[in-house]
Design a protein that fits this description.
Blueprint lengths: L14 H16 L6 H4 L5 H17 L4 E7 L3 H7 L5 E6 L3 E2 L4 E2 L8 E10 L9 H6 L1 E11 L10 H6 L4 E6 L15 E6 L2 E7 L7 H13 L10 E3 L7 E2 L5 E6 L4 E6 L2
Parallel strand pairs: 1-10, 3-7, 4-13
Antiparallel strand pairs: 1-2, 5-6, 5-10, 5-11, 6-7, 8-9, 8-12, 12-13
Helix pairs in contact: 1-3
The chain binds 2-oxoadipic acid and magnesium ion.
Length: 271
Amino acid sequence: MANKTLTQTPLPKTPRVATLAKIVDEAARKAKAIVQLSSAYKDISVREAYDIQRASIGMRVERGDRVVGMKMGLTSHAKMQQVGVHSPIYGHLTQSMMLNDGDSIQMETQIHPRAEPEIAFILGRDLSGPVTSAQAMLAVEGVCAALEIIDSRYQEFKFDLCDVIADNASSSGFVLGSTVASPQDFDLGNIGMVLEINGEIKQVGSSAAILEHPANALAQLANMLAERGEHLRAGQIILAGSATAAEYVQPGDFVRLRTDGLGTVSLHVQP
Ligand code: OOG
Ligand code: MG
């Protein structure tokens, strides 16, 4: 099943990984901002940060949640600039983070949420790196528009590369649009994306901003996972990363992404 990604390689259980995983897990569970891990632990490596992320997702799975996919983040210049971190990263998507199109997010489960316009892939086959973007696309069964809610667990939404990796790439929730297209019939390379809040246009972009083509984000994810001996599974949902900067949302907001050919997707923020 999809959550086997967590058991492909044994979890490194250093005491530090376990301690820091508990800290980020509790911050997400209680929706309480924490001090950046990097302020006390200056020597966390990218590898250890992913170990912390995996250990914290493992804690959610132990409580009954399930991994349903993965997300790429920081795959557009607009996003990198917004947060001041300049390498693409990945995180895990779990069942409890998934909303239906038009559902509401509960503000009390969030710290300082932001919404992002995204493209999602639904995989029809397993996908192992190393792969090219063309090979990666052959594993895709469906593509759709998506909104991601990110909610950094760090104070002031500030972090360095290893902080944000440890914090599951800030992911908090996601919603897929109901228009699912076949990737063969659809050129994903330049899809117009308009992010609206309460009917007001906040961000305008194109899927071309996502590593020049969202397929590159999918291939890069498979290739990053391959470095850890992991791979993507048939049925998993993959977010390619935001095409534009993210927008803060407030209680009562109606957030909608309109796309050129992939329909719309929306969510409410519980008043
Ligand atoms: C990190 C996550 C970025 C994206 O789509 O670029 C991300 C953040 O901005 O907090 O999800
Ligand atoms: Mg995102």
